[in-house]
Design a protein that fits this description.
This protein is elongated. The two termini are about 35 Å apart. It has 24 helices and nine strands. By secondary structure, it is mostly helical. One of its GO terms (biological process) is monoatomic ion transport. This is Solute carrier organic anion transporter family member. Keywords: Cell membrane, Disulfide bond, Ion transport, Membrane, Transmembrane, Transmembrane helix, Transport. It comes from Mugilogobius chulae (yellowstripe goby). Its main location: membrane.
């Protein structure tokens, strides 16, 4: 036995080390606690496995040091055996580490709580924020450019916070950073919902009853809901900044913490589940947000309006309160985990020697790490390839609901629900399928990049689905002039302008005013569209010249509308109904939604592969910092500018605003909206494909010298073996 202990033992296989470490503590019966000799005075039981097992147990407990690949029994380096677990490996907060809590101290439960955090992040940031943008524009008088900046402020804060999180959190206590981040995110959700409680009630009476022709002009000031509220825009920005700071650790520390505590073969599945929760949650958030939008914003008040009314504001704030409340217990749960989970030593083949460990830590914190990453072309082009993908998702998530509202004339709640139904199976299923594909076919960096290239190119062709668009509704004085017609045998000339060009060059008040409504004293702040019998939409019953209203089972019908010119034989002259004119675009809508769903599914395939490829193309000590740098580049080049630019393009497609160039848009030109969306999406797809191809090219170039070197070593080893055989 002494000869065995003096032998220079080197374990070349990972399984041998794991077999030794997995020995139960009750087998270590051959070591005398006083002499530290395997031949101690303690009598052996019949079940003793003998001196060899005792020696192996000594290795497992760290009682004996070996030369070679083993290091000194430092818990920070080699981990603990079952007998050596101490408070550093237990769940808890400070000195409070109850035994009952340790059942949650496993990678599976860590994955659960981290997935809860990523789920809340996606549900709030993408789901609730995106579904509430239209309501915020109506309630607080914001433009699409302003709401686009609200969306981007989240990524701005993440971009600022990521360097600190990656640098300090990467070498610090990762669960604590993650837990405090969730608490900060919850605080941001409360602040985002704060304007609802600090503003006067949204008391807008049913406009159909107050906007008849010759209505009392003293009532005009009652229904200006957004007056003086646009400054709350800064409160929403502050809430989003806290959201961004709080969720910054999720994009770096969560991935690396999972990667450090699970086996390498299971890491893609764990990351796939984590990222699936992050990508599935926006769709669920949109569905929940759509449900809340069907509830009037002031739930204690009664209103005559319906969700189909253009002045309707739903209860957008409820989701933020619920999510903010859940963030706190989730944050405290994550914060309770130790730096390393019990058994995390099984995720590496061997322990690092003390000097190697020191060098690894120095490298991870060395400023030269950034230079090494910048000189890694595969890493750089992977970052540049992910940026257009993130830009596409960020822009569409922010404005796709508005797109569906305008194109298919849906309410905000219904559009959010439809968009959520599309995103649930596509994002969730696609992300999981992509991660499973990597594991099933054991794709390396090259295979992952090729997979992303194929999906991106197919997605480029599917982008042309945005050629499909519904015609813009005809609205008198906005995109069509008041027309001449015949009513009760009298020829009416209601057109004050000779051309649409002259119409667009005039002020809104001049455009909406015609001979038929010049004496009605209409208020242009009260947008309440009605559809005339001539299939033309009017700004309000007043601007349609309507003088009376009748309530029927099918809705409110206005009569005596002097601007509505219809054929006398139809019996509908001078009639209008509340709401926008319905279009016959259902067949186009079905085709559009089907192809769009397929495009989103393909896009979601490429969520996990590029992140996994990033972790595989950098060294172990650079992983946290590399992911931090990657998310900074992705946000700076993609997620931050995309909603702002896309919002500005949406503003360019606007045809009608209450205050000319300010406030929310009442009517969009559908063809322009589709054209801008098509160009933007195609550009993002082309850039993504190009950068993936460049990443593949440089990865293959960098792999050739390594392959040649390995081949030379293999040949040298074979030559030496042959010479030894001959001898």
């Amino acid at each position: 036995m002494p000869d065995l202990l003096k032998t220079d033992v080197s374990f070349t296989s990972r399984q041998e080390l794991l077999d030794l470490q997995d020995k139960p503590p009750d087998e270590d019966v051959g070591v005398d606690s006083q002499s530290h000799s395997p031949n101690g005075s303690v009598p052996r039981s019949p079940s003793s496995l003998g001196a060899d097992v005792s020696a192996h147990s000594a290795v497992s407990t760290g009682a004996t040091s070996f030369k070679g690949q083993f290091c000194e029994p430092d818990p920070a380096q080699c981990g603990h055996s079952v007998m050596e677990q101490d408070s550093e490996l237990l769940c808890g907060w400070g000195s409070l580490r109850p035994k009952a809590l340790q059942v949650f101290n496993t990678p599976g439960w860590v994955l659960f709580f981290l997935s809860m955090g990523s789920f809340l992040q996606g549900m709030v940031i993408v789901g609730f924020v995106s579904s509430s943008l239209t309501s915020l524009e109506r309630r607080f008088g914001l433009s699409s450019s302003q709401t686009g900046l609200i969306v981007s402020s989240y990524d701005i804060a993440s971009c600022v916070g990521l360097p600190f999180v990656s640098y300090f959190g990467g070498n610090g206590h990762k669960p604590r950073w993650l837990g405090w981040g969730m608490i900060i995110m919850g605080l941001g959700s409360f602040i985002f919902a704060l304007p609802h409680f600090t503003t006067p009630p949204y008391q807008v009476t049913a406009p159909e009853k107050s906007l008849l022709c010759l209505a009392n002009s003293t009532d005009f000031s009652q229904n200006k809901p957004a007056d003086g509220l646009s400054n709350y825009y800064y409160v929403f920005v502050l809430g989003q900044l806290l959201h961004g700071l709080g969720t910054a650790p999720l994009f770096t520390l969560a991935f690396t913490f999972l990667d450090e505590n699970v086996k390498a073969t299971n890491a893609p599945v764990f990351m796939g589940v984590f990222y699936t929760a992050m990508t599935l949650s926006p769709a669920i958030g949109m569905m929940i947000g759509g449900f809340f939008l069907n509830i009037y914003t002031d739930i204690t008040l009664n209103t005559d309006m319906t969700p189909q009314s253009p002045l309707w504001v739903g209860a957008w704030w409820i989701g933020f309160l619920l999510a903010g409340t859940i963030c706190f217990p989730v944050g405290f749960a994550i914060m309770s985990y130790p730096r390393k989970l019990p058994g995390s030593q099984e995720t590496t083949a061997t322990c690092e020697a003390p000097q190697d460990k020191e060098k690894s830590h120095t490298t991870a914190s060395d400023p030269e790490t950034l230079l090494h990453l910048c000189l890694n072309p595969t890493f750089i082009f992977l970052c540049l390839a992910i940026a257009p993908s993130a830009a596409l998702i960020s822009a569409l998530s922010a404005f796709m609901i508005k797109f569906l509202e305008s194109q298919f004339r849906l309410s905000s709640g219904k559009a959010a629900t439809i968009f959520g139904i599309i995103m649930v199976p596509t994002l969730g299923g696609g992300t999981f399928i992509g991660s499973y594909f990597v594991k099933r076919f054991k794709l390396q960096v090259r295979g992952m990049i090729q997979f992303c290239i194929g999906c991106t190119l197919i997605g480029l062709f599917l982008t042309f689905v945005f050629f499909i668009h519904c015609p813009t509704v005809s609205m008198a004085g906005v995109n069509v002039p008041y027309t001449s017609g015949q009513m009760d045998g009298r020829v009416l000339d209601l057109r004050p302008y000779n051309s649409l060009q002259q119409l667009h060059s005039s002020s809104l008040d001049d455009r909406l005013t015609a001979q038929c409504n010049s004496n009605c004293s209409c208020d242009k702040q009260k947008f309440s569209p009605v559809c005339g019998a001539d299939d033309v939409m009017y700004f309000s019953p007043c601007y349609a010249g309507c003088s009376s209203i009748n309530t029927t089972a099918g809705g409110e019908v206005f009569s005596g509308c002097s601007c509505v010119v219809a054929n006398v034989s139809s019996g509908r002259e001078g009639l209008a109904v509340a709401g926008q004119c319905e279009g016959s675009c259902s067949s186009k809508a079905a085709v559009f939604l089907s192809v769009f769903t397929l495009a989103v599914l393909l896009h979601s395939f490429c969520y996990i592969p590029p992140i996994t490829a990033t972790l595989r193309c950098v060294t172990e000590s650079q992983k946290s910092f590399a992911l931090g740098i990657q998310w900074i580049l992705v946000r700076t080049l993609g997620s931050i500018p995309a909603p702002i630019v896309f919002g500005a393009l949406m503003d360019q497609a606007c045809l009608l605003r209450p205050n000319e160039d300010q406030g929310s848009c009442f009517l969009y030109e559908n063809s322009k909206m589709s054209y801008f969306t098509l160009v933007s999406c195609a550009m993002f797809r082309v850039l993504g494909s190009l950068f993936y191809i460049l990443a593949l090219v440089f990865h293959q170039r960098s792999a050739r010298p390594q392959l040649q070197q390995n081949s030379e070593h293999t040949q040298e080893g074979a030559t030496v073996k042959q010479q030894q055989t001959r001898m």
